[in-house]
Amino acid sequence: MSNFYNKVSLAYTKPMNKRMTLQEISQASQWINGEINDTLSVNSYGMPQSGSTVSQRENSSFLPVTQPASAPTSPVGSPVSQLLSDLSNITLDPNWQAIKSTVRERNAAMFNNDLMADIYFVVGNPGHTQRIPSHKYILATGSSVFYAMFYGGLADTKEEIEVPDVEPTAFLTLLRYLYCDEIQLEPDTVLATLYVAKKYIVPHLARACVNYLETSLTAKNACLLLSQSRLFEEPELMQRCWEVIDAQAEIALHSDGFVDIDADTLQSVLGRETINCKETILWEAAMNWASAECSRREIEPTPSNKRQVLDSALYLLRLPAMSLEEFANGPAQMGMLTLEETVDLFLHYTASNKPRLTYPTKPRIGLKPQTCHRFQSCAYRSNQWRYRGRCDSIQFSVDRRVFIVGFGLYGSSTGASDYTVKIELKRLGRILAENNTKFFSDGSSNTFHVYFAHPVQVDPELFYTASAILDGAELSYFGQEGLSEINAGCVTFQFQCSSESTNGTGVQGGQIPELIFYGPISENH
């Protein structure tokens, strides 16, 4: 054990061996902050609004995790600093111990308190530091790194320790957990808190940070969070990011944060087999990243410089998977390719004797849409199913996260007909996606698929409303013998009637016979 503590004790003397600086982590946190606030402030996703408190279970114990209403960038004048002042004032009473009935309350009174402090930390970048008092015993009981630092074979006898790679607010969040058994996370410091939790090996705090980030994950911040999850070696968060990026690739690749990912993450994205978008979207994203990287390196974003910063990542783009027209109007005219590469690619499209290429020729697999069929049969009658501007609607929930792509609908029962349709997906009255589109019904009892512009994330254990308003042939097929619970692959769907349904659709029968989605696939497939 002594060798372990001797090695761990070295951790506090230098920053973690990571690629990002404290400033870069702070910048990433500030960028993600807007996305987290957007998510937390919208209760339609079922997440707590700002200012709410949720509990997390670990080893059958409950620990409050607070998401404050404000997210101060400095402890000065913030609710945190006010609480610290209040705790310090408590111990001004010479008999303060008498009014604290538990060990937790007495330890909490020592949080950020000079009373009996036997170690001080100077935290933050030079010029923006904060001197924080602490107590070795409390720190050592909560972290093996602190134990090695104060009581191990290489214990430091200094009374003041500099920690330049950690933000003061993040360090105070760590201390709050060690002293008070409370985790208070804020959008603009959650990444910095994850960093300090990893640095000092405090796994429960790190897990709380990851959970917090998962609740804020959207297509707009998935690429940047993927970069951070790789940095912090969080495989579960990485997997969640990949699920979002694969299903909502176009939104993710066009997001502002994509250009800020590191080069290794860029290569992972460009080499991804299951990413679900056209190759032209990946090309555009790579060009945008290259321009931003040129700016970071303070060089002109010329085609040659962009090719240089992309390096081997360029050869992960599957240019031959583009159509001839897409290639001719895009990459072929941008000056990024050599003359030989351009000629070889044109020959690949047009010649029977195709040249050997340095770019992958096989298209990406992408994601395979799955379908949830909710009726066991369908029928038609001479006076059903009619459309006069009324809404067919059904509510559903899932037990695993999926991405709704569109709906399957019934068409005409009186011969071929064109339909116009407005489809919507809502949560608690808020429209998450809608589309006005058309489909042709050939007069059969088959279903006809209509799609949203982009897949829509649907979280587990929450009810969503699928709606359709059709206009076309007066009579159509309709479903019957509907089921309230259906297993579609690895996902269980539950259905219930919607108060918005004014055309008769319900669980037992009606329209919207199918939900089309991306989701986890069983190992048998």
From TrEMBL:
SUPFAM superfamilies: POZ domain (SSF54695). Residues 43-78 are annotated as: Disordered. Its main location: cytoplasm. The keyword Cytoplasm applies. GO terms for biological process: neurogenesis. SMART domains: BACK, BTB. Residues 117-187 form the BTB domain. Keywords: Cytoplasm. Pfam families: BACK, BTB, PHR. It is found in: Cytoplasm. One of its GO terms (cellular component) is cytosol. This is BTB domain-containing protein.
